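Note to self: the last two entries modelled the partners one at a time, which told us nothing about the interface. This time every component goes in together.
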Amino acid sequence: MMESQIHKIHQQLVNKEISCTKLVQERLDLLKLNTHNTVNSLLDTLALASAAKVDAKIESGQEIGLLEGIPFGIKDVYMVQGTYTTASSDLLKKYKSPYTATAIQKLFAAGAIPLVKENCDSFGHGSSSENTIFGAVKNANNPNLVGGGSSGGSAVNVAKDYTVFSIGGDTGGSVRQPAGYNNVYGFKPTYGRISRFGLMAYASSTDCVGPIAKSIEDIRIVLNAMSGKDIKDQTTYPSETILAATISNTDAIKTVGYFKNFIENDAIDAKVKSDFLATIEKIKAKGIQVKELDFFASDTLVATYYTLAMAETASNLSRLDGTNYGNRIEGASLKDTYSITRSENFSEETKRRVVGGNQVLSQGFSDEIYLKGLSVRDQIAANFEKDFHQVDIILSPVTPSSPPKIGDSLKDPLAMYLSDAYTVGFSLGQLPTLTVPQGTETGLQITAAKNNDALVLKFANFLKDTI
Amino acid sequence: MSKIMTVDILSSIKGAKPSESVNKLFDVIKNANKNTALNTVHTNAVTLDDLREDVVIDSPQMEKQIIIANFPKEKNGYLVVSKVIEE
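The predicted structure of the combined assembly is written out below.
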């Protein structure tokens, strides 16, 4: 039997070794008492009512689905009807979702039970989960270090077993990096595989819904449940269910590549580098051909990503003006009301990004920065396409170094942006990429060509047995 | 528009100024090599057959109630908007 929390709990429920109500109540208690600042709000009423229904079903001898009764967490940027959806911001501190996000609705339909809206960087703006009104998220392994971000609360909840799995959001690494920082699995699927409807928009061209869990099998189960075309997000595409058997046969992978310049530079921690290269040797020893690949300089990747992400977030967040919802602060005129509301309610980091976005979108600057950024992105995508003619998988570290201490990232935004060097490229390429908690202190990223999500999971299974 | 608008006006954020950290990122882009040989044609459009039906979908009552509850201000059963710009 392969390792899987979901299968294990499912069996316990079916065998009546534990009631769903007890299971849910235990996890709610853990969340309530936890000191890692992972919780924005608990969904206890909803969770316990759902658990009672599952128990009644089991009691009456009916079959339950694999995800039925499984408790999970939701990053506080997803709409869940009737619950607070704050994006960890003052502006939306009292905002209630009128509807439910498609990805979350699909999990509800499968019977999974939501426990918590999870702490994160405000509007996804950050790599440490310190940019939040609910207090900095503390790392699962060492509470003096950051939980990573922006889906920090989600990764810590999974790592500490407060939730069986959690749903994060990944725009430039926001699922993969916190997964790496807390030693769990975190998957950013191919862009468009899972509907973004009901996910609060940060940068729409790279926003992805992503599961965080403790095993490859659990990632597979949750990914399948959320995938599929959705009329409410026209960038979605139909995809086939990934079968457990498909990803357990690891013979198909013949060649693996890695970016030479990610490893041969001054910014990478010596230990991360030597651990990564040791992993490469182990892969070679299994008879897989390993190729060194050329790629764009890290600062070019980071600059391209942030230029485009800031432009998109400036546009997406322009709707947050206190007119129809949010914490409106009245001024002398409508314009005044807009600007006071936004000045008082946005964090420093969010303001920095909105201003940056408006800078590059304004006349006189857009050609040499924004349009240039779009063109560099095309070159990056073309480079990936060329690479995947040569290799099946690209392997990278998740981050150049270990998680920073709480407080350090806020002091130096540029350093924080640059720490995203290894994750943002795959976002710009819209490629499926999985963080596995192996290989380096903050894990490894496995990337395949677009729509090849199954191959990523297959290689993860291989790596699990190899290193 | 000929009038020059500063970033604080464009962003509707009082006193907003460009950040040094962010400007450093923009400098990298300005100096990046542009490969003019690449001429990508983007096909992000949805095909005609794939468009959703042009029908009005009424929101469920619960959704309407929450939207009203989220509105910042209410007086005597009416939703209160801010003063309208007169310029």
